[in-house]
């Protein structure tokens, strides 16, 4: 039987904190428990924010925690061709369309509609207004002209076209830390016509993650509850691209004293800062509920 494959996939746009440590240690522990493989992937498609020094820091922090992973490490910025191939597949089947709207344009449009109707416009799981479909009605000539002129645009999933070709259901298997499994159906339509290719790069988090997991043979995706809703889109894209769907587990988040999740954007205390003030890796592992550092493999 094929060994199960787990992965930890941080973005090098800041320093790792305790939340990252928990997710990395959990993936490693599960890989060991189920006699599987543990991969590290660097998700660096955000070329404006990702930095080489943060990537180096990721390796330093994980080694300090006592983790080992398979080499070579997959770096997303080196594989844009894979993501282009995927979105060309979707484009060829008529399942995506270009969108030239800025976030401000969308917000203004939604605000005007809300004022006219006197009720709130529907939101996606992240709280953003669902795309009102402004660019879906553009003529092919208009689209071609704007693209030829170099106008920035995204690519969005055409939910209406998808429903006609792939009406669902869209099931996946959720597993517990004890190994129990249950079949769950996702609801991708609550995301509306989601962006799957951004303006600045030929992919998005959703598309690249799905492609990477398939190419790397990932069988078990273990990540935080803050990404649980994204599973809707990931399972949908796997279906549309003919890719296998991993098993999923979304673990609880590490919270700060105020009850908020740890985040780079809030400058949550980083692992290197804990290390600098004398906290040991063994103390971190114990605090997060993991066994002492294993003996290094030979």
From TrEMBL:
<dbReference type="Pfam" id="PF00749">
    <property type="entry name" value="tRNA-synt_1c"/>
</dbReference>
<keyword id="KW-0030">Aminoacyl-tRNA synthetase</keyword>
<dbReference type="GO" id="GO:0005829">
    <property type="term" value="C:cytosol"/>
</dbReference>
<dbReference type="GO" id="GO:0004818">
    <property type="term" value="F:glutamate-tRNA ligase activity"/>
</dbReference>
<dbReference type="InterPro" id="IPR049940">
    <property type="entry name" value="GluQ/Sye"/>
</dbReference>
<keyword id="KW-0547">Nucleotide-binding</keyword>
<keyword id="KW-0862">Zinc</keyword>
<keyword id="KW-0067">ATP-binding</keyword>
<feature type="domain" description="Glutamyl/glutaminyl-tRNA synthetase class Ib catalytic">
    <location>
        <begin position="6"/>
        <end position="267"/>
    </location>
</feature>
<keyword id="KW-0436">Ligase</keyword>
<dbReference type="InterPro" id="IPR000924">
    <property type="entry name" value="Glu/Gln-tRNA-synth"/>
</dbReference>
<dbReference type="GO" id="GO:0005524">
    <property type="term" value="F:ATP binding"/>
</dbReference>
<keyword id="KW-0479">Metal-binding</keyword>
<keyword id="KW-0648">Protein biosynthesis</keyword>
<dbReference type="InterPro" id="IPR001412">
    <property type="entry name" value="aa-tRNA-synth_I_CS"/>
</dbReference>
<protein>
    <submittedName>
        <fullName>Glutamyl-Q tRNA(Asp) ligase</fullName>
    </submittedName>
</protein>
<dbReference type="InterPro" id="IPR014729">
    <property type="entry name" value="Rossmann-like_a/b/a_fold"/>
</dbReference>
<dbReference type="GO" id="GO:0006424">
    <property type="term" value="P:glutamyl-tRNA aminoacylation"/>
</dbReference>
<comment type="similarity">
    <text>Belongs to the class-I aminoacyl-tRNA synthetase family.</text>
</comment>
<dbReference type="InterPro" id="IPR020058">
    <property type="entry name" value="Glu/Gln-tRNA-synth_Ib_cat-dom"/>
</dbReference>
């Amino acid at each position: 039987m094929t060994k199960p494959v787990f992965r930890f996939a941080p973005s090098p746009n800041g320093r790792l904190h305790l939340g990252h440590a928990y997710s990395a240690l959990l993936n490693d522990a599960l890989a060991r428990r189920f006699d599987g493989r543990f991969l590290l992937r660097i998700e660096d498609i955000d070329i404006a924010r990702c930095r080489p020094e943060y990537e180096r820091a990721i390796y330093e922090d994980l080694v300090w925690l006592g983790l080992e992973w398979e080499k070579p490490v997959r770096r997303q910025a080196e594989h844009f061709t894979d993501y282009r191939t995927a979105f060309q597949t979707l484009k060829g089947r008529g399942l995506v369309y270009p969108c030239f709207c800025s976030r401000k344009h969308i917000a203004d449009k939604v605000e005007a509609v809300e004022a006219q109707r006197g009720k709130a416009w529907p939101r996606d799981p992240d709280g953003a207004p669902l795309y009102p479909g402004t660019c879906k009605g553009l003529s092919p000539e208009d689209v071609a002209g704007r693209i030829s002129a170099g106008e920035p645009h995204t690519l969005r999933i055409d939910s209406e076209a998808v429903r006609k070709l792939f009406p669902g259901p869209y099931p996946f298997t959720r597993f517990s830390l004890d190994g129990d499994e249950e079949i769950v159906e996702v609801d991708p339509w609550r995301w509306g016509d989601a962006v799957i290719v951004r303006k600045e790069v030929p992919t998005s988090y959703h598309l690249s993650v799905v492609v990477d997991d398939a190419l790397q043979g990932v069988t078990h995706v273990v990540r935080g509850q803050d990404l649980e809703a994204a599973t809707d889109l990931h399972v949908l894209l796997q279906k549309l691209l003919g890719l296998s769907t991993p098993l999923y587990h979304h673990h609880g988040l590490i919270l700060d004293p105020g009850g908020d999740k740890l985040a780079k954007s809030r400058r949550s205390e980083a692992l290197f800062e804990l290390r600098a003030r004398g906290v040991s890796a063994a103390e971190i592992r114990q605090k997060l509920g993991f066994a002492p550092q294993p003996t290094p493999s030979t």
